[in-house]
Amino acid sequence: MNNPSARMRIFSGIQPSGVLTLANYLCALKRFVELQDSGQECVYCIVDLHAITVWQDPGALKDAIRHAAAAFLAAGIDPGKSILFNQSQVSAHAELAWVFNCVARMGWMGRMTQFKEKAGRDRENASVGLFTYPSLMAADILVYHATHVPVGDDQKQHLELTRDIAIKFNHDYRRDFFPVIEPLIEGVTTRIMSLRDGTKKMSKSDPSDYSRINLSDSADQVAKKIRRARSDAFALPGQASELASRPEARNLLGIYALLGNTAMDQVLDRFGGKMFSQLKGELTELAVAVLGPISAEMNRLVGDPAELDRILGDGAERAASLADPILQQTYDIVGMLPSRRRN
Ligand code: AQP
Question: Is the CB of 31 within 6 Å of ligand 1?
């Protein structure tokens, strides 16, 4: 796994808990495409079982799964090169998650900040699935013996827990079975923040549509959202050291850098001392140029749900052929009898 020339097995997923956002594109999809095109073995999953850890309207969820598939394809995922599927079609994910529920400790789960944030004050009323979410995420990754996982910085804690689960499993059962995975958290900006609050993550489930740019937004919507994005009263900073105390400036400059594949220093040189209005104008032009073709292709693809379902079904078969043997070996290791039905 540490041989840099070895082909990596990449796994990553996105929840269909709403329309995918600019943050999903910049910090996930764009990176997924680069990894695919660099010749790595890539398994990409629309994690629909994760989405139901909070309430989802069933009809809307079906649409959201197909929309997410369209976003992956429109962003450049090629189902001939990468495996693309939705999680619920490959039952090994949920089965391995159960085993991991028995390996992970309550204390580990209780420390997860995503659970604390999503459950809020009313923890008693949160679903058990939301609490054990990280076990399912660990299973998603480890059921493929994936070696590398590209995610945004917000998922770092869950990846550390995945490593803890792999280490404890290997220790408890005295074998080196699950790989201790490496996160791939890279880029000039690894967390995109809300357009309404530079200290809060951009999220597809934020109640305010003005907090985010959806990949399906029209050019007019993108322009309106950037125009209304929160700013502060000062000229834009020209030094990286000034960014920490200027969350809104940091966010918009970071988005500009990622969209244009430009280093942050160059972006600071370009906009330092200028007004927010200038940055917003140029950011709108860039965002529309990059996102316009993606949203047009998404619209075309969602017009053919049967084709999307075919692509996901085909991906699920290929994914299951990798995952099922690893699940069977896991069952054997923990002491289950061989299943006649499966063999
Ligand atoms: N704001 C973000 N900044 C950087 N990366 C982000 N990702 C999501 N939001 C940001 C990355 O996108 C991938 C898929 O994430 P996800 O959709 O499965 O889960 P999430 O992080 O919970 O995303 P949302 O939009 O906040 O969903 P909801 O609102 O349903 O909870 C991951 O790699 C993630 O890091």
Answer: no
Closest CA to ligand 1's atom 11: 152
Rounded to the nearest 5 degrees, what angle is found at the Cα of 325, between the Cα atoms of 320 and 326? 95
Contacts of 91 (CB under 8 A, 6+ apart): none
pLDDT in tens, 70-94: 999 999 999 999 999 999 999 999 9
Burial group, residue 100, by CB count within 10 angstroms (0-12, 13-18, 19+) = buried
The CA distance from 166 to 180, in Å, is: 6
**Residue nearest to ligand 1 atom 23, measured at CA:** 203
At 49, give phi and psi (nearest 5°).
-70, -30
Contact (CB, 8 A) for 114 and 157: yes
How far does residue 24's CA lie from ligand 1's centre (Å)?
Answer: 6
Does residue 44 contact residue 32 with C-beta atoms inside 8 Å?
yes
227 vs 195: CA distance, rounded Å: 10
3-state secondary structure of 193: strand
Q: Residue 14: helix, strand or coil by DSSP?
A: strand
Phi, psi of 281 (to 5 degrees): -65, -50
24: Cβ below 6 Å to ligand 1?
A: yes
How many Cβ atoms sit within 10 Å of the Cβ of residue 111? 12
Does this model's pTM top 0.90? My answer is yes
| Residue 72 CA to ligand 1 centre (angstroms) | 14
3-33 residue pLDDT tens: 555 788 999 999 999 999 999 999 999 999 9
Looking up tokens 């945004």 gives 152
Closest CA to 333 of 212, 122, 174, 120: 174
Tokens of 45: 């999953």
> 45 forms bridges with which residues in the sheet?
13, 85
